[in-house]
Design goal:
Shape: globular
Number of strands: 31
Structural class: mainly beta
Largest sheet: 22 strands, antiparallel, barrel
Strand content: over 45%
Distance between the termini: 49 Å
């Protein structure tokens, strides 16, 4: 299967060149925080926008959500976005090596291709393999992250089965501010980044940031990988990124904006003993928007956006190029009726794939209509949403979601919800020679959930029980039962059913200068067709962290626990459970300068998230940040 993508110039339906347009707009226009929000993203601590595609107070969100703040990111000790997500409830990762390696993220036991990833409201990922290219997402560019657990196809369409992760890049209003930072660490790690952001006047605000990260790395494979994979050399990487945004407010009723992010990852990997195998991946996102308050109840927004996922692979088994490009047009209307609100959304998504394997080159278009309603009355909260997606390739799909919540007492709310979702087959699953079946259908899913949330003062508690049943799962068979003559080496086809049920518990508490957070996931990710455990997903997963502040000093400890998993669908290759310990500390030397140190995997735990692939051992990092 093709795992690479190529870097090509962009030719959109509404023709524009991303870099040139971004440069022009950065000088004169604004940055939106997403079509995911009807407004540019407000303060992360005040509202969340991903669950309903509009700004909501966290206490009004009926879905199970988790917000990773800018402070959480700064103190996390994470090197990559995947490292950061591994520390969150309901999330597991599998990675073929270190931070620059191929990575999968599982939400609530769902497959990595059954989740939607957004950057400032723009969907990113590959149409050939499915899922986001996590290693190309630069942590240095990220301000905060919102995670919504559970089905959201009624809001975002295909692939929002297990949940949605939305990444918000760094932006700032107010006085113009410059920030530079640098650091060094184990495995030859070096980081440098700098940026400037703020408001030129009352109307215009902007942000620009560039970052560089590299590491000499370690061998990503173990000898057990075999002679056609193992290579004892070091597998390093270099990641360069740039983001820019601008926002211009004509008045309180009208504004326009633009945003742009690009990253380039040059990463080595192992595919045999005598070749310097590497992937060169490019991730790019650009969007422009206009927003207007038509009257007292009606707000409207139009956004044009594009994302590209491209890789050039140079390996011992050959060279390949793949270019995935997605173009979006979204018209979003929000109507406010007192405490209630309604939305009407129309979208067009065009996917374009160009590869060296020309058999899977192609396009597909999805036209969508969606509507939702949020209702608030005294102690009652309710929401309803429905969406219709019409694809030029895999047909029509209608999904919906109903949720209800009741506040029993101050700070305590009980929730119940039911939603349907689907995953579209990837271009590989449809067209890859000797593997794809052009008649493959979308996977379907039904999720029921109940939960409780308690928040009062510095205490936060939550619990959620879910049961997600999926049908028509696309699986890989070594002997293709559909068309064994054409597909001599196996195929992907619809056959399996799966049920993922589980209970997630989480809590956070402040005791003066001491803060404690904990979570535990108990799940049963089961393949109903075989009765076996779904690959690379554990039945138990948990986190525990604590931090202490004293004047300008802050220190913390983080732990991650994961149970036994299997690397294959046959449950023959076991992956042992593991526990990780991370330590960090920081000191604010003065109002402009901050020094930090972190020690990840402090106990040097030797573990695997993918069979015969090495993970990062004990590693130190020290950095300094100067802001003016």
């Amino acid at each position: 299967m093709l795992q690479a993508k190529v870097y090509f110039p962009v030719i959109m339906t509404f023709q524009f060149t991303p870099i040139a347009l971004a440069a022009a707009l950065a000088a004169a226009f604004p940055v939106s925080s997403a079509v995911a929000a009807a407004n540019p993203v407000p303060e992360a601590a005040a509202v969340v926008v991903t669950a309903a595609r509009q700004a909501q107070a966290p206490a009004d969100v009926l879905a199970d959500i988790n917000v990773i703040s800018a402070e959480d990111i700064a103190n996390s000790g994470a090197v990559s976005v995947a490292d950061l997500l591994q520390q969150q409830r309901g999330i597991e990762i599998a990675r073929n090596g270190g931070a620059g390696s191929n990575t999968s993220v599982f939400i609530r036991g769902s497959n990595s291709v059954q989740n939607v990833v957004l950057v400032d409201g723009v969907r990113v990922g590959s149409s050939t393999t499915g899922g986001a290219s996590w290693a190309t997402l630069p942590l240095d560019q990220i301000d905060h992250i919102e995670i919504v657990y559970g089905p959201l196809s009624s809001m975002y369409g295909a692939d929002a089965v297990g949940g949605v992760i939305q990444i918000f890049t760094k932006k700032q209003k107010g006085a113009v501010r410059s920030v530079v930072s640098a650091g060094i660490g184990s495995y030859g790690t070096r980081e440098m980044n700098g940026g400037v952001s703020g408001s030129v006047n009352k109307e215009l605000s902007f942000s620009m940031k560039a970052a560089h990260q590299e590491a000499e790395g370690f061998s990503v494979t173990r000898p057990g990988a075999g002679p056609y994979s193992y290579n004892a050399d070091k597998d390093g990487y270099k990641l360069d990124s740039f983001s820019a945004s601008a926002n211009y407010e004509f008045s309180k009723q009208a504004e326009v904006g633009a945003q742009f992010m690009t990253s380039r990852l040059n990463a080595q990997f192992d595919a045999g003993p005598s070749y310097d195998d590497r992937n060169v991946q490019n991730q790019e996102m650009i969007s422009v928007f206009g927003k207007m308050r038509v009257n007292d109840i009606w707000n409207t927004q139009l956004q044009l956006s594009q994302s590209r996922d491209q890789t050039y692979t140079d390996a011992s088994y050959g060279k390949s190029q793949i270019d995935t490009r997605q173009d979006f047009i979204t018209l979003q209307n929000q109507f406010q009726f007192g405490k209630d609100s309604a939305q009407l959304i129309a979208e067009r998504r065009e996917e374009n794939v160009i590869t060296t394997t020309k058999a899977i080159n192609g396009k597909r278009r999805t036209d969508s209509l969606a509507g939702s309603y949020l209702w608030k009355q005294d102690a009652h909260l309710a929401s309803a949403a429905v969406r219709y997606d019409r694809s030029s390739v895999y047909g029509n799909n209608t999904t919906g979601n109903l949720a209800y919540g009741y506040r029993f007492a101050e700070g305590l709310r009980l929730n119940a919800s039911y939603g349907t979702s689907f995953r579209a087959p990837t271009f590989n699953e449809l067209y890859y020679p000797g593997y794809g079946i052009s008649t493959n259908r979308p996977e379907k899913s039904k999720n029921a959930e109940i939960g409780a949330v308690y928040q009062k003062g510095d205490l936060e508690l939550s619990a959620a029980y879910f049961r997600n049943r999926a049908t028509d799962l696309l699986v890989t068979a070594k002997v293709c039962p559909v068309d064994p003559v054409t597909n001599k080496y196996g195929c992907a086809y619809n056959v399996n059913q799966a049920t993922i049920s589980g209970l997630t518990l989480s809590g956070a508490m402040k005791f003066g200068q001491l803060g404690i957070k904990a979570s535990a996931d108990f799940q049963d990710p089961k393949d109903d067709t075989t009765g076996l455990q779904l690959a690379r997903r554990a039945k138990r997963h948990g986190t525990l962290s604590a931090d202490w502040s004293e004047g300008n000093w802050k220190a913390g400890v983080e732990t991650v626990f994961s149970g036994r998993r299997y690397d294959d669908v046959a449950n023959k290759n076991a992956l042992g459970g593991y526990s990780l310990l991370n330590l960090y500390t920081s000191v604010q030397l003065n109002k402009d300068t901050r020094v930090l140190a972190r020690w990840n995997n402090a106990l040097n735990k030797d573990y695997e998230t993918a069979k015969n692939y090495t993970t990062t051992g004990s590693s130190l990092f020290v950095g300094v940040q100067y802001a003016y």
